[in-house]
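Incident log, entry 3
Record: Nucleoside diphosphate kinase (142 residues)
Problem: checksum mismatch between cached and fresh output.
Input:
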Amino acid sequence: MAVERTLSIVKPDAVGRNQIGEIYRRFESAGLRIVAARMLHLSREQAEGFYAVHRERPFFEALVGFMTSGPVMVQVLEGEEAIRKNREIMGATNPAEAAAGTIRHDLAETIDANAVHGSDAPETARDEIAFFFRDDEIHSRG
Ligand code: RTP
Ligand code: MG
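Fresh output:
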């Protein structure tokens, strides 16, 4: 199995509910290492750039509005099959459809405020990590 890196965001709703530690615990319990992390309040420009792939979607305005509504934690997770494993821990996009035991099922309320983001493929993981972190800010232990 390959050691991968993926970009994770604890979204404003979960930061607001004081759930950063609870979410980090779930990453670490699953064998994912936090190898870079930063708290920031995304500007509108940053949120639009990060979610550019969704520009034409009907939910784009709501997504950008929500992602700029408060501070977020962004982190790079590293581990065996980190991209797939993180998506598994997160659960389905809509918390109502997420499996029991996943972050979105257990902690989130709505599809808009769904607690976490995770890269969905190796190419997007590479681009999304580079969006937030320089190479020398990532402290790999793999
Ligand atoms: P994310 O990118 O945040 O990890 O979430 P995802 O891959 O599970 O979902 P994606 O399709 O990439 O959508 C990005 C975010 O947009 C919001 N969304 N709303 N109202 C809707 O139908 C709808 N669809 C997506 C969600 O907050 C989703 O996380
Ligand atoms: Mg996505």
